[in-house]
Amino acid sequence: MATQILKPDICVIGAGAAGRAIATKAVAAGATVVLVGSAGAQAHIGHPIVAVRAFCTAAAHAHAIRRAPHFGVTAGEAEIDFRHVMRHVRHAAAATAPDMSDERLGALGVRIVSAHARFKDRRTVEAGAFEIRARHFVVATGAQPEMPPIAGLDEVGCLTVETIFALTRRPARLLITGGGHATLELAQAFTRLGSQVTVVGTPVSLALQDPEAASILLRELRAEGLDMRESATATRIERKGRSGVRLYVGSETGGEEIVDGTQLLILPDTRPATAELDLKMAGIGFDENGIKVSDRMRTTNRKVYAIGDVTGGQQSIHAAARQGEIVLDAILGKGTAQANELLLPRVIATEPALASVGLTETVARRQHKSIRVLRSAYADNDRAQPEGSTVGFVKIICDEPGRILGVTMVGSEANELIGVWTLALARGLTADDMSSYLPAYPSFGEIGKRAASAYFAGKRRASIMQRLTGMLRGSG
Fold this sequence. Notes:
By secondary structure, the protein is α/β, with parallel strands linked by helices. The protein has three domains: 4-47 and 96-145 and 271-341, FAD/NAD(P)-binding domain, CATH 3.50.50; 146-269, FAD/NAD(P)-binding domain (3-Layer(bba) Sandwich); 352-468, Enolase-like, domain 1 (2-Layer Sandwich), CATH 3.30.390.30. It contains 16 helices and 25 strands. Strand 21 and strand 22 form a beta hairpin. Helix 1 packs parallel to helix 11 (317-332) and helix 3 crosses helix 4. The mean pLDDT is 91.
């Protein structure tokens, strides 16, 4: 069959969430778009992150029943219909599948080429029976899971985030390891639904957070019954009995412990998916950490951009979405926005949630000569008290003039509250600006406002002390 030549404005390589999002926006802006790749399972079952959220929501309802006596309401022990929970999860995830489908994108005007893509040269991509010579290319191939080096894993097998929601029986004793973003969220949810859960190792998402906030989250997770072994490493695994697993866990001191379970769930680290692209043929720079890009997501080939996990940056849907917006603006000549990982929120959607944006206190002290740390506690908030959600705080890091450098919050709905602070950081706002922010009363939003207002309390105290010192000197 003769090769067909396509000459679209934009060729997007990679049909995951990031690739499909930028393809949809590009065609809406009037560009001709070819999307190369396959969405795989996501086109049929929806995105795994939606499934995780649905599962955690079911677990939150079970936890609310257990907490009801605290408010004078007795409902008895929560009865868990695990099959029903999983039906809810699959239904919620499947509801997102039409947005990922080839049919929807085709109806919008995106041409789909379901084939592997490889660069033939700096201006051309080969994909099946097609040769694509686009004005611009966007690589959005994502990342591939990289299983940890656990001896015996190939023989014993494990669950992953793609297979865990196919379970019909609740795991009695679930072991979880790996650095995926959903590690703690799933661990808490399974605990709330009645499983005994052990987490081996520290998830990367937790290691990137403020240590003080992380310690509060770990304390609350342990209080719910979660067994956290953050300083341990899974080294080997073997079968135990007919259906169980035995995990050998190494400690920092060199010793080895045995942890038995019924199933092992691995949420692995990932590596950028670049192997099949022939990037060298296109003059695109890359290494083991991913494709090298500028602050506008352009590669070393000026016709080619890259977004999402393939660039090796923060691995999240919202990060890839923002990068896609920057690329589309650059291609269409509509803006000069630049990618900045500090402006992307880092979220662990547990209860309490942990969220941050910008610099943590530790990094800010290392990078700046003088900073101010402004705080406000959930326990002082008029919504937190009646709801019994008094654990946590909001911490604002700013420089001496009051410019916000970073925000960390741990507590109820922190994953939602971080949004306004992400905007504040992106717009270069100060503590003064945010002290005039008017959230509804009573609301958790007031906690951040109160923290911002503390900047002026400190300034007033300093001013009063200066005046008193001057008066004392004058009277002497």
